[in-house]
TrEMBL record:
Residue ranges of every copy of the RCK N-terminal domain listed in the record: 1-116
Residue ranges constituting the RCK C-terminal domain according to the UniProt record: 134-230
Taxon lineage: Bacteria, Pseudomonadati, Bacteroidota, Cytophagia, Cytophagales
PROSITE patterns the UniProt entry points to: RCK_C (PS51202), RCK_N (PS51201)
Domain of life: Bacteria
Designated name of the protein: TrkA family potassium uptake protein
Organism: Algoriphagus pacificus
Length: 230
């Protein structure tokens, strides 16, 4: 995967390094030369540039980039301007950092695909969401074990937990399954809610919209969630 990460503060730099360490190609961007120099040996590529300048941004390899993450946290105006420019450039997937609730509303109005809250979410958590297929969310118990919420890989839809062999084949534990259903909001629009089904049973059949809550080692989680026939 190829990423562009704008802003090499604590969150942006940490995420850039983790994604690079996992074999991805990352372009880390910051306006501060000291940040660019500090991480040039730890991130695939680092560039000192102003991501609020449309002409400069247009020179980046946007067509070859899978995900752009605007991680600017100190300057709300620069964050919004940079996000808007990447959105206008029609990048494949755009994620931006929200500094406060009003800022989040502005980012949603711009049309970003996902919003980051670094005060609540770690770079490790986001590296899993970005790098491991089907992961919706994750919680790290330590550096080796995690609990993740994940979509059901396509080849397992319609099978039971027993048939898939989570424990015997993948060494994973299914804690529960969350079922999605549509409800009407007070304003009359449709919203998706998740219902937790309680402890998973071996004969429970998986549906395409189910969210699995899995526990296991990071290696086994990655092996299971990346295994999907094309």
């Amino acid at each position: 995967m190829k990423y562009i990460i704008v802003g090499l503060g604590n969150f942006g730099a940490s995420l850039s390094q983790k994604l690079t360490a996992q074999g991805n190609e990352v372009i880390g961007i910051d306006t501060r030369m000291e940040k660019v120099d500090l991480y040039k040996e730890k991130i695939s590529h680092t560039i000192c540039m102003d991501a609020t300048d449309e002409f400069t941004v247009s020179g980046l390899p946007l067509e070859d980039t899978d995900i752009v993450i605007v991680a600017i946290g100190e300057d709300q105006g620069a964050n919004i301007m940079s996000t808007a420019i990447f959105k206008n450039m029609e990048v494949k997937r755009l994620i931006s950092r929200a500094i406060n609730p009003l800022h989040e509303k502005v980012l949603k109005a711009i049309g970003v695909d996902e919003i980051v809250h670094p005060e609540e979410e770690t770079a490790e958590r986001w590296s899993k969401k970005l790098c491991i297929k089907n992961v919706v969310d994750s919680f790290e118990l330590n550096e080796h074990f995690s609990i993740v919420e994940a979509k059901v890989p396509r080849e397992y839809v319609g099978q039971t937990i027993r048939e898939i062999g989570f424990r015997s084949k993948f060494n994973l534990l299914v804690l529960t399954i969350m079922k999605q259903h549509e409800v009407k909001s007070r304003l009359g629009s449709n919203q998706t809610e998740l219902n937790i089904q309680g402890l998973a049973t071996p004969d429970q059949k998986l549906e395409v919209t189910d969210i699995l809550v899995l526990y296991g080692s990071n290696k086994h989680l990655k092996d299971f969630l990346k295994f999907e026939k094309m």
